[in-house]
Amino acid sequence: MVWMRVALCVLLLGLGSACGTDPDGKETRPHVLLVLVDTLRFDRVGAYGADRPTTPNIDLVANSGVRFERAYSPAPWTKPAAASILTGLYPSTHGATSVPARISDEATTLAEILSAEGYATLGVVSGSNVSSVYGFDRGFDHWDESQIRGGEAFTSLQVTDRALAFAREAIRSGRPFFLFVHYFDPHYIYRHHPKVGFSPERAGRLDGSEGIHELRRIGRDASAEEIEFLRARYDEEIRVTDATFGRLMEGLEALGVAQQNLILVITADHGEEILERGWLGHTRTLYEELLRVPLIVRAPGRVRPGHVVAQPVSTVALTPTILDWLGLEAPDDSLQAESLAALAAGGQEDPDAQVLGEVDFETGGPAQTVRNAFKKALIGARFKLIRDDPTGRYELYDLRADPKEQRDLAADEPARVRALVPVLEQRLARIRGPEGPVRSVELDEEQREALRRLGYLGED
Ligand SMILES: [Zn+2]
Protein backbone atom coordinates (compact mmCIF):
# COMPACT_ATOMS: atom_id res chain seq x y z
CA MET A 1 0.00 0.00 0.00
CA VAL A 2 1.22 3.45 -0.79
CA TRP A 3 0.88 6.19 1.75
CA MET A 4 0.97 9.54 0.14
CA ARG A 5 2.77 12.36 1.77
CA VAL A 6 0.72 15.37 0.86
CA ALA A 7 3.08 18.01 2.09
CA LEU A 8 5.84 17.84 4.60
CA CYS A 9 5.95 21.44 5.56
CA VAL A 10 2.52 22.91 5.92
CA LEU A 11 1.76 26.54 6.28
CA LEU A 12 -1.19 26.73 8.55
CA LEU A 13 -3.26 29.88 8.93
CA GLY A 14 -0.14 32.00 8.95
CA LEU A 15 1.08 30.39 12.15
CA GLY A 16 4.47 29.70 10.66
CA SER A 17 6.34 26.85 9.15
CA ALA A 18 5.34 23.42 10.32
CA CYS A 19 8.70 21.82 9.82
CA GLY A 20 12.12 22.32 11.28
CA THR A 21 15.51 22.28 9.67
CA ASP A 22 18.77 20.79 10.83
CA PRO A 23 22.02 22.84 10.97
CA ASP A 24 22.67 22.08 7.28
CA GLY A 25 19.31 23.55 6.37
CA LYS A 26 17.89 20.14 5.51
CA GLU A 27 14.28 19.69 6.44
CA THR A 28 13.64 17.46 9.40
CA ARG A 29 10.43 15.71 10.17
CA PRO A 30 9.10 16.27 13.66
CA HIS A 31 9.15 13.57 16.27
CA VAL A 32 5.79 12.54 17.71
CA LEU A 33 5.26 11.73 21.38
CA LEU A 34 1.89 10.30 22.44
CA VAL A 35 1.54 10.02 26.20
CA LEU A 36 -1.39 7.98 27.45
CA VAL A 37 -1.94 8.17 31.20
CA ASP A 38 -4.19 5.33 32.30
CA THR A 39 -7.26 6.24 34.37
CA LEU A 40 -6.56 9.97 34.52
CA ARG A 41 -9.77 11.85 35.28
CA PHE A 42 -9.92 15.20 33.53
CA ASP A 43 -10.92 17.04 36.72
CA ARG A 44 -7.91 15.79 38.66
CA VAL A 45 -5.55 17.59 36.27
CA GLY A 46 -4.48 21.07 37.36
CA ALA A 47 -5.21 22.65 33.98
CA TYR A 48 -8.77 21.32 34.28
CA GLY A 49 -9.29 22.77 37.73
CA ALA A 50 -8.02 20.14 40.19
CA ASP A 51 -7.91 21.51 43.72
CA ARG A 52 -4.50 19.95 44.47
CA PRO A 53 -1.18 20.52 42.66
CA THR A 54 -1.44 17.14 40.93
CA THR A 55 0.06 17.89 37.51
CA PRO A 56 2.52 20.80 37.35
CA ASN A 57 4.37 19.28 34.39
CA ILE A 58 1.28 18.54 32.33
CA ASP A 59 0.00 22.03 33.16
CA LEU A 60 3.16 23.53 31.67
CA VAL A 61 2.34 21.87 28.38
CA ALA A 62 -1.25 23.10 28.60
CA ASN A 63 0.01 26.66 29.03
CA SER A 64 2.15 26.55 25.93
CA GLY A 65 -0.06 24.22 23.90
CA VAL A 66 -3.76 23.70 23.30
CA ARG A 67 -6.20 22.25 25.79
CA PHE A 68 -9.42 20.55 24.76
CA GLU A 69 -11.85 21.36 27.55
CA ARG A 70 -14.33 18.66 26.59
CA ALA A 71 -12.45 15.67 25.27
CA TYR A 72 -14.22 12.33 25.42
CA SER A 73 -12.92 8.82 25.32
CA PRO A 74 -15.14 6.59 23.19
CA ALA A 75 -15.17 3.96 25.95
CA PRO A 76 -14.92 3.79 29.75
CA TRP A 77 -12.09 1.28 30.02
CA THR A 78 -8.59 0.73 28.76
CA LYS A 79 -8.62 -1.70 25.89
CA PRO A 80 -11.30 -0.24 23.61
CA ALA A 81 -10.28 3.34 24.46
CA ALA A 82 -6.57 2.85 23.78
CA ALA A 83 -7.29 0.90 20.59
CA SER A 84 -9.45 3.77 19.34
CA ILE A 85 -6.65 6.28 19.93
CA LEU A 86 -4.22 4.13 17.97
CA THR A 87 -6.56 3.27 15.07
CA GLY A 88 -8.88 6.26 14.60
CA LEU A 89 -11.82 3.83 14.84
CA TYR A 90 -14.62 3.55 17.34
CA PRO A 91 -14.64 0.37 19.48
CA SER A 92 -17.52 -1.23 17.54
CA THR A 93 -15.33 -1.14 14.45
CA HIS A 94 -11.90 -2.11 15.82
CA GLY A 95 -13.60 -4.86 17.80
CA ALA A 96 -11.50 -4.80 21.00
CA THR A 97 -14.53 -4.31 23.22
CA SER A 98 -14.80 -7.30 25.55
CA VAL A 99 -12.31 -8.77 28.02
CA PRO A 100 -11.01 -11.48 25.63
CA ALA A 101 -11.28 -9.48 22.35
CA ARG A 102 -8.34 -8.40 20.16
CA ILE A 103 -8.00 -5.47 17.77
CA SER A 104 -9.47 -6.47 14.39
CA ASP A 105 -6.95 -7.49 11.73
CA GLU A 106 -8.69 -5.12 9.33
CA ALA A 107 -7.81 -2.06 11.39
CA THR A 108 -4.73 -0.12 10.34
CA THR A 109 -2.81 1.39 13.24
CA LEU A 110 -1.15 4.78 13.45
CA ALA A 111 2.14 2.99 14.11
CA GLU A 112 1.77 0.98 10.88
CA ILE A 113 1.19 4.15 8.87
CA LEU A 114 4.09 6.03 10.44
CA SER A 115 6.40 3.03 10.16
CA ALA A 116 5.67 2.87 6.43
CA GLU A 117 6.59 6.56 6.27
CA GLY A 118 10.03 5.91 7.71
CA TYR A 119 9.35 6.75 11.31
CA ALA A 120 10.98 4.71 14.05
CA THR A 121 7.92 3.45 15.93
CA LEU A 122 8.46 2.87 19.62
CA GLY A 123 5.99 1.71 22.24
CA VAL A 124 6.39 1.32 26.00
CA VAL A 125 3.32 0.16 27.92
CA SER A 126 2.62 -0.85 31.50
CA GLY A 127 -0.90 -2.27 31.57
CA SER A 128 -2.08 -5.68 30.44
CA ASN A 129 -5.04 -4.21 28.53
CA VAL A 130 -2.64 -2.45 26.15
CA SER A 131 -0.45 -5.48 25.53
CA SER A 132 0.64 -7.47 22.50
CA VAL A 133 -1.84 -10.16 23.57
CA TYR A 134 -4.57 -7.94 22.11
CA GLY A 135 -2.55 -6.67 19.14
CA PHE A 136 -1.36 -3.33 20.50
CA ASP A 137 2.22 -3.91 19.34
CA ARG A 138 1.14 -3.90 15.68
CA GLY A 139 3.27 -1.52 13.62
CA PHE A 140 5.84 -0.84 16.35
CA ASP A 141 9.48 -1.52 15.48
CA HIS A 142 10.34 -1.67 19.16
CA TRP A 143 7.87 -2.61 21.85
CA ASP A 144 8.43 -2.92 25.59
CA GLU A 145 5.78 -4.36 27.89
CA SER A 146 8.14 -5.48 30.63
CA GLN A 147 6.53 -3.07 33.08
CA ILE A 148 3.08 -4.69 33.05
CA ARG A 149 3.03 -5.41 36.76
CA GLY A 150 -0.61 -5.22 37.72
CA GLY A 151 -0.53 -1.93 39.59
CA GLU A 152 1.40 -3.43 42.48
CA ALA A 153 4.64 -1.65 41.72
CA PHE A 154 5.37 1.93 40.72
CA THR A 155 6.35 1.56 37.07
CA SER A 156 6.30 5.06 35.56
CA LEU A 157 10.01 5.60 36.22
CA GLN A 158 11.00 2.42 34.41
CA VAL A 159 8.59 3.21 31.59
CA THR A 160 10.25 6.62 31.23
CA ASP A 161 13.75 5.14 31.20
CA ARG A 162 12.82 2.60 28.53
CA ALA A 163 11.09 5.27 26.44
CA LEU A 164 14.21 7.45 26.59
CA ALA A 165 16.43 4.50 25.63
CA PHE A 166 14.25 3.85 22.58
CA ALA A 167 14.29 7.52 21.63
CA ARG A 168 18.08 7.66 21.98
CA GLU A 169 18.47 4.77 19.52
CA ALA A 170 16.10 6.33 17.00
CA ILE A 171 17.92 9.66 17.16
CA ARG A 172 21.24 7.90 16.74
CA SER A 173 19.91 6.23 13.59
CA GLY A 174 18.86 9.63 12.22
CA ARG A 175 15.17 8.78 12.00
CA PRO A 176 12.24 10.73 13.39
CA PHE A 177 10.38 8.75 16.00
CA PHE A 178 6.80 8.06 16.95
CA LEU A 179 6.96 7.26 20.66
CA PHE A 180 3.89 5.87 22.44
CA VAL A 181 4.25 5.93 26.21
CA HIS A 182 1.58 4.38 28.44
CA TYR A 183 1.74 5.15 32.18
CA PHE A 184 -0.35 2.89 34.39
CA ASP A 185 0.17 4.18 37.93
CA PRO A 186 -3.06 6.18 38.49
CA HIS A 187 -5.01 2.98 37.77
CA TYR A 188 -6.10 1.11 40.91
CA ILE A 189 -4.09 -0.03 43.10
CA TYR A 190 -3.81 3.49 44.60
CA ARG A 191 -0.47 3.24 46.37
CA HIS A 192 0.58 5.70 49.03
CA HIS A 193 3.34 8.22 48.25
CA PRO A 194 4.14 9.78 51.64
CA LYS A 195 6.52 12.28 50.06
CA VAL A 196 3.63 13.72 48.07
CA GLY A 197 1.58 13.68 51.25
CA PHE A 198 -1.94 14.33 49.98
CA SER A 199 -3.41 11.56 52.15
CA PRO A 200 -3.11 10.46 55.78
CA GLU A 201 -1.93 6.97 56.75
CA ARG A 202 -5.49 5.88 57.37
CA ALA A 203 -9.07 7.09 57.48
CA GLY A 204 -12.03 5.29 59.03
CA ARG A 205 -11.88 1.65 57.96
CA LEU A 206 -9.22 2.23 55.29
CA ASP A 207 -5.43 2.10 55.38
CA GLY A 208 -4.78 1.40 51.70
CA SER A 209 -4.17 -2.33 52.08
CA GLU A 210 -7.69 -3.27 50.91
CA GLY A 211 -8.24 -5.13 47.66
CA ILE A 212 -10.59 -3.57 45.15
CA HIS A 213 -13.46 -5.92 45.88
CA GLU A 214 -13.23 -5.11 49.58
CA LEU A 215 -13.13 -1.40 48.76
CA ARG A 216 -16.26 -1.80 46.66
CA ARG A 217 -18.01 -3.46 49.63
CA ILE A 218 -16.89 -0.75 52.03
CA GLY A 219 -17.77 1.84 49.38
CA ARG A 220 -21.48 1.07 49.65
CA ASP A 221 -21.59 3.00 52.92
CA ALA A 222 -18.30 4.89 52.90
CA SER A 223 -17.99 8.02 55.03
CA ALA A 224 -17.00 11.36 53.54
CA GLU A 225 -13.60 10.92 55.21
CA GLU A 226 -13.09 7.50 53.58
CA ILE A 227 -14.08 8.80 50.15
CA GLU A 228 -11.67 11.70 50.53
CA PHE A 229 -8.94 9.27 51.57
CA LEU A 230 -9.36 7.29 48.33
CA ARG A 231 -9.38 10.47 46.24
CA ALA A 232 -6.22 11.69 47.92
CA ARG A 233 -4.43 8.36 47.31
CA TYR A 234 -5.48 8.49 43.66
CA ASP A 235 -4.20 12.07 43.41
CA GLU A 236 -0.84 10.99 44.86
CA GLU A 237 -0.46 8.46 42.04
CA ILE A 238 -1.26 11.19 39.52
CA ARG A 239 1.34 13.49 41.09
CA VAL A 240 4.15 10.94 40.86
CA THR A 241 3.16 10.02 37.32
CA ASP A 242 3.26 13.69 36.37
CA ALA A 243 6.74 13.97 37.91
CA THR A 244 8.00 11.12 35.73
CA PHE A 245 6.38 12.73 32.70
CA GLY A 246 8.44 15.81 33.55
CA ARG A 247 11.50 13.60 33.63
CA LEU A 248 10.62 12.23 30.21
CA MET A 249 10.45 15.75 28.79
CA GLU A 250 13.79 16.68 30.37
CA GLY A 251 15.32 13.47 29.05
CA LEU A 252 14.16 14.19 25.51
CA GLU A 253 15.55 17.69 25.73
CA ALA A 254 18.88 16.27 26.89
CA LEU A 255 18.82 14.04 23.81
CA GLY A 256 18.54 17.14 21.66
CA VAL A 257 14.85 16.87 20.86
CA ALA A 258 13.91 20.50 20.59
CA GLN A 259 10.40 21.56 21.47
CA GLN A 260 10.21 23.06 18.01
CA ASN A 261 10.65 19.62 16.54
CA LEU A 262 8.27 17.64 18.74
CA ILE A 263 4.56 17.05 18.36
CA LEU A 264 3.25 16.16 21.80
CA VAL A 265 -0.13 14.71 22.73
CA ILE A 266 -1.12 13.97 26.32
CA THR A 267 -4.37 12.20 27.07
CA ALA A 268 -6.00 9.40 29.04
CA ASP A 269 -7.94 6.29 28.15
CA HIS A 270 -10.76 7.02 30.61
CA GLY A 271 -11.43 8.51 34.03
CA GLU A 272 -12.34 6.88 37.30
CA GLU A 273 -15.46 6.52 39.40
CA ILE A 274 -14.54 7.08 43.04
CA LEU A 275 -17.80 6.35 44.87
CA GLU A 276 -19.79 9.13 43.17
CA ARG A 277 -22.38 6.42 42.50
CA GLY A 278 -21.45 3.98 45.26
CA TRP A 279 -18.89 2.07 43.22
CA LEU A 280 -15.17 2.25 42.52
CA GLY A 281 -13.45 1.67 39.17
CA HIS A 282 -14.50 1.95 35.54
CA THR A 283 -16.24 -0.14 32.81
CA ARG A 284 -19.86 0.09 33.95
CA THR A 285 -21.25 3.44 32.79
CA LEU A 286 -20.81 6.26 30.28
CA TYR A 287 -21.00 9.14 32.74
CA GLU A 288 -18.65 12.10 32.62
CA GLU A 289 -16.29 10.91 35.38
CA LEU A 290 -15.43 7.97 33.13
CA LEU A 291 -15.64 9.30 29.58
CA ARG A 292 -14.16 12.76 29.94
CA VAL A 293 -10.39 12.83 29.70
CA PRO A 294 -7.67 15.45 29.55
CA LEU A 295 -6.44 16.21 26.03
CA ILE A 296 -3.52 18.58 25.68
CA VAL A 297 -1.47 18.99 22.54
CA ARG A 298 1.57 20.93 21.49
CA ALA A 299 2.54 21.07 17.86
CA PRO A 300 4.85 23.98 17.14
CA GLY A 301 3.87 25.99 14.12
CA ARG A 302 0.62 24.09 13.81
CA VAL A 303 -1.50 25.20 16.77
CA ARG A 304 -2.36 28.39 18.58
CA PRO A 305 -0.39 28.37 21.86
CA GLY A 306 -2.55 28.78 24.96
CA HIS A 307 -5.77 28.15 23.05
CA VAL A 308 -8.66 26.27 24.69
CA VAL A 309 -11.15 24.36 22.53
CA ALA A 310 -14.63 24.17 24.04
CA GLN A 311 -16.57 21.90 21.72
CA PRO A 312 -16.87 18.17 22.48
CA VAL A 313 -14.21 16.12 20.68
CA SER A 314 -13.31 12.45 20.74
CA THR A 315 -9.91 10.87 21.24
CA VAL A 316 -10.81 8.76 18.18
CA ALA A 317 -9.70 11.90 16.33
CA LEU A 318 -6.08 11.67 17.47
CA THR A 319 -4.87 9.42 14.66
CA PRO A 320 -6.31 11.66 11.91
CA THR A 321 -5.03 14.74 13.74
CA ILE A 322 -1.45 13.50 14.03
CA LEU A 323 -1.48 12.44 10.35
CA ASP A 324 -2.82 15.87 9.43
CA TRP A 325 -0.06 17.67 11.38
CA LEU A 326 2.53 15.55 9.61
CA GLY A 327 1.03 16.28 6.21
CA LEU A 328 0.16 12.62 5.74
CA GLU A 329 -3.06 11.23 4.41
CA ALA A 330 -4.85 8.25 5.84
CA PRO A 331 -4.58 5.23 3.53
CA ASP A 332 -8.32 5.13 2.89
CA ASP A 333 -11.45 6.82 4.14
CA SER A 334 -11.93 4.42 7.02
CA LEU A 335 -11.00 6.80 9.84
CA GLN A 336 -14.06 7.68 11.91
CA ALA A 337 -13.31 11.17 13.16
CA GLU A 338 -12.23 14.43 11.60
CA SER A 339 -8.79 15.87 12.30
CA LEU A 340 -8.69 18.35 15.18
CA ALA A 341 -5.87 20.34 13.56
CA ALA A 342 -8.05 23.27 12.51
CA LEU A 343 -9.65 23.51 15.96
CA ALA A 344 -6.22 23.42 17.60
CA ALA A 345 -5.11 26.25 15.32
CA GLY A 346 -7.95 28.39 16.64
CA GLY A 347 -10.45 27.56 13.92
CA GLN A 348 -14.19 27.96 14.09
CA GLU A 349 -15.93 25.60 16.50
CA ASP A 350 -19.05 23.64 15.61
CA PRO A 351 -21.85 24.27 18.11
CA ASP A 352 -23.60 21.10 16.91
CA ALA A 353 -20.61 18.78 17.31
CA GLN A 354 -21.49 15.44 18.85
CA VAL A 355 -19.33 12.49 19.86
CA LEU A 356 -20.15 8.90 20.70
CA GLY A 357 -19.44 6.81 23.74
CA GLU A 358 -19.95 3.08 23.89
CA VAL A 359 -19.32 0.15 26.14
CA ASP A 360 -19.72 -3.55 25.47
CA PHE A 361 -18.00 -4.80 28.54
CA GLU A 362 -18.34 -8.53 28.62
CA THR A 363 -16.07 -10.70 30.67
CA GLY A 364 -16.43 -13.72 28.43
CA GLY A 365 -16.99 -16.32 31.10
CA PRO A 366 -19.57 -17.48 33.63
CA ALA A 367 -19.24 -16.42 37.26
CA GLN A 368 -16.43 -14.08 36.34
CA THR A 369 -18.38 -10.97 36.23
CA VAL A 370 -18.01 -7.59 37.56
CA ARG A 371 -21.32 -6.48 36.04
CA ASN A 372 -21.36 -6.61 32.24
CA ALA A 373 -22.38 -3.35 30.57
CA PHE A 374 -23.80 -2.62 27.13
CA LYS A 375 -24.52 1.04 26.55
CA LYS A 376 -24.27 3.78 23.93
CA ALA A 377 -24.13 7.55 24.36
CA LEU A 378 -24.49 10.59 22.15
CA ILE A 379 -22.80 13.64 23.64
CA GLY A 380 -23.41 17.16 22.40
CA ALA A 381 -22.54 20.63 23.57
CA ARG A 382 -25.37 20.57 26.07
CA PHE A 383 -27.32 17.30 26.11
CA LYS A 384 -26.22 13.73 26.56
CA LEU A 385 -28.37 10.77 25.63
CA ILE A 386 -27.49 7.35 27.04
CA ARG A 387 -29.09 4.10 25.91
CA ASP A 388 -28.90 0.92 27.93
CA ASP A 389 -28.93 -1.74 25.20
CA PRO A 390 -30.40 -4.72 27.11
CA THR A 391 -33.38 -2.76 28.42
CA GLY A 392 -33.69 -0.16 25.63
CA ARG A 393 -34.04 2.45 28.34
CA TYR A 394 -32.83 6.01 27.67
CA GLU A 395 -31.37 8.58 30.04
CA LEU A 396 -31.02 12.26 29.16
CA TYR A 397 -28.83 14.80 30.92
CA ASP A 398 -28.40 18.53 30.58
CA LEU A 399 -24.63 18.76 31.03
CA ARG A 400 -24.72 22.52 31.29
CA ALA A 401 -27.20 22.64 34.19
CA ASP A 402 -26.26 19.28 35.67
CA PRO A 403 -22.62 18.44 34.88
CA LYS A 404 -22.54 15.61 37.42
CA GLU A 405 -25.52 13.90 35.74
CA GLN A 406 -27.66 13.62 38.83
CA ARG A 407 -31.02 14.34 37.20
CA ASP A 408 -32.28 12.11 34.38
CA LEU A 409 -34.56 14.21 32.17
CA ALA A 410 -35.75 11.43 29.85
CA ALA A 411 -39.23 11.24 31.36
CA ASP A 412 -39.59 15.03 31.52
CA GLU A 413 -38.39 15.72 27.98
CA PRO A 414 -39.68 12.91 25.73
CA ALA A 415 -39.63 15.14 22.63
CA ARG A 416 -35.93 15.79 23.03
CA VAL A 417 -35.24 12.08 23.49
CA ARG A 418 -37.30 11.29 20.37
CA ALA A 419 -35.29 13.82 18.40
CA LEU A 420 -31.91 12.51 19.55
CA VAL A 421 -32.58 8.77 19.16
CA PRO A 422 -32.39 8.74 15.33
CA VAL A 423 -29.20 10.81 15.46
CA LEU A 424 -27.67 8.22 17.75
CA GLU A 425 -28.90 5.43 15.47
CA GLN A 426 -27.40 7.07 12.38
CA ARG A 427 -24.07 7.59 14.07
CA LEU A 428 -24.00 4.00 15.31
CA ALA A 429 -24.83 2.67 11.85
CA ARG A 430 -21.65 4.33 10.59
CA ILE A 431 -19.37 2.63 13.09
CA ARG A 432 -20.69 -0.88 12.86
CA GLY A 433 -17.87 -3.37 12.56
CA PRO A 434 -17.38 -6.10 10.00
CA GLU A 435 -19.73 -9.06 10.14
CA GLY A 436 -18.43 -12.24 11.66
CA PRO A 437 -16.89 -13.26 14.93
CA VAL A 438 -14.75 -10.86 16.92
CA ARG A 439 -11.20 -12.06 17.35
CA SER A 440 -10.64 -13.24 20.89
CA VAL A 441 -7.82 -14.67 22.89
CA GLU A 442 -8.02 -17.45 25.44
CA LEU A 443 -6.93 -16.00 28.78
CA ASP A 444 -5.11 -18.31 31.15
CA GLU A 445 -5.76 -18.45 34.89
CA GLU A 446 -2.83 -16.17 35.71
CA GLN A 447 -4.13 -13.48 33.34
CA ARG A 448 -7.61 -13.85 34.81
CA GLU A 449 -6.28 -13.54 38.35
CA ALA A 450 -4.43 -10.35 37.38
CA LEU A 451 -7.68 -8.94 35.95
CA ARG A 452 -9.51 -9.93 39.14
CA ARG A 453 -7.02 -8.02 41.28
CA LEU A 454 -7.49 -4.95 39.10
CA GLY A 455 -11.27 -5.20 39.45
CA TYR A 456 -12.17 -6.27 35.89
CA LEU A 457 -13.31 -9.73 36.92
CA GLY A 458 -14.68 -11.23 40.11
CA GLU A 459 -17.46 -10.23 42.44
CA ASP A 460 -19.43 -7.10 41.80
ZN1 LIG B 1 -7.32 2.21 31.60
Uncertain segments are 1-19
Q: Main sheet: which strands, in order across?
A: 7-6-8-3-9-13-4-14
Number of strands: 19
CATH architecture of the largest domain: 3-Layer(aba) Sandwich
> Could you tell me which ligands this complex binds, including any ions or cofactors?
zinc ion
Describe the structure concisely for a colleague.
This protein is 28% helix and 17% strand.
Structure description:
The strands form 5 sheets. An 8-stranded mixed sheet has the order 7-6-8-3-9-13-4-14, with helices on both faces. It is built from 12 helices and 19 strands. It has helices at 56-64, 78-87, 91-94, 110-116, 156-172, 212-219, 224-254, 288-291, 318-325, 341-344, 414-430, 445-453, and strands at 20-21, 27-28, 31-37, 66-68, 71-72, 120-124, 142-144, 177-183, 262-268, 273-274, 280-281, 292-293, 295-298, 308-309, 313-314, 355-361, 373-379, 383-388, 393-398. The protein has 460 residues and is an alpha/beta fold. It has 2 domains: 28-344, Alkaline Phosphatase, subunit A (3-Layer(aba) Sandwich); 355-432 and 443-453, 2-Layer Sandwich (Arylsulfatase, C-terminal domain), CATH 3.30.1120. Strand 1 (20-21) and strand 2 (27-28) form a beta hairpin. Helix 5 (156-172) runs parallel beside helix 7. Helix content is 28%, strand content 17%. The protein is globular. Residues 38-39, 77-78, 187, 269-270 line the site of zinc ion (ZN).
Characteristic key phrases:
single chain; 460 residues; alpha/beta; Alkaline Phosphatase, subunit A; Arylsulfatase, C-terminal domain; 2 domains; eight-stranded mixed β-sheet; four-stranded antiparallel β-sheet; 12 helices; 17% strand; globular; disordered N terminus; binds zinc ion
